[in-house]
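Q: Predict the assembly, please.
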Amino acid sequence: MNPKDDKRTESCGSPVFVHNPHLEEMKDDVLYHFGFGTGTHNLPALFGDVKFVCVGGSPWRMKSFTEYIAAELSMEDPKSEYPNICAGTDRYAMYKVGPVLSVSHGMGIPSIAIMLHELIKLLHHAHCTDVTIVRIGTSGGIGLEPGTVVVTKQSMDATFLPKFEQVILGKTVVRNTDLDQSLAAELLQCSKELNQFETVIGNTMCTLDFYEGQARLDGAFCSYTEKDKQDYLKKASEAGVCNIEMESSVFAAMCKLSGLRAAVVCVTLLDRLNGDQLNVAQEVLHSYQQRPQILVGCYIKKQLKKN
Ligand code: R2B
Ligand code: URA
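A: Predicted assembly structure:
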C-alpha cells in the first residue's frame, strides 16, 4: 500500500481488538455481508480515519443521519449525494462522511451481531484507533413521556439481569453488557446543552421479540392478561428499566470485547404502561427519531472541536 493511501491520522491510540487466532492465518478475509474483503479493498485507505461509528436499525435512518452530520460538520458533499458504500449487498447499508461512519443493522440480536462481527473486523483491518460507537434507535418507554430519549446505563435481559447469553459449541457463554459510563454522562450533558427534549440515563431491557417478548397484548399470540403485563413491566421498572428494545445487549457485549467506547441512545415512541400499538402520526414519529441523531451529532461536533 502506498503510505499516502493510508487514511490513518495517528499511529498510536487505542486499537480495535479482535480475539481470534484463526484470522492471522487467513490470507484474505471476506466481510461477506458488507461486500468487502481485505484482498479486494484497501481497508486502511477507505476507513483508517474513522473515529465515530453510528449504528441503527433502518438503512434510511442511517442515510439521513449521514446527511445530518455532514451539514452539522460543514462537510456536505456539493452534490449532496451519499452513496451506500455496501452497494454490492442489500443486507446492510453503510455511509461515511469524514471520520463518521454510519451503518444499518436491521432488527434483533442475530442481525446486529453479524453486522458487528464484520464491522469490528473492518475497523481492525483498517487499523482504526480511539473509535467511539453509538447505537441510535427507537424503543418502548416505561413510565416516560413519549419522545423521551434514554441513554442506556446497563443493558438487561428479559429477566432483568445485566448479561448477554450466547450458545457457542452447544455451551452457554455469558457476556457482560457494560457500556461506557463516562460516554453516557457526556451524552446526557449534550442533551442539557441542547435543551430541546427530555433525556434520562437508565437501564434498557433487550428482548428477543417485539410482541410476546415485550409483554405486548397485540401480537398474533398472547396467553397472558393485561394485569400480567402490568405486573411484568412494574418489575422491570423496579429493576431500573426505562425502555425496551432489541439489540443493546449484544451490542454492549461485543463492543466491550473489542475495546470500543460504546453507548446506546434510544428515543421512546410510546409509554408501554399506556398501550402497545404504535399509532403516533408519521410526522411525530419522524421528529422523535431525529432526537438520538441530534444528540449524537452534538457530541461528535464537540469532540471534533477539541482536536
Ligand atoms: C427497536 O425498534 C425495532 C422494533 O420495532 C427494534 O429493532 C428495536 O430495537
Ligand atoms: N422498539 C421496540 O423494540 N419496542 C417498542 O415498543 C418500540 C420500538
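Residues 138-140, 210, 214, 244-246, 269 surround uracil (ligand 2) (CB under 6 Å). The chain has a mean pLDDT of 95.
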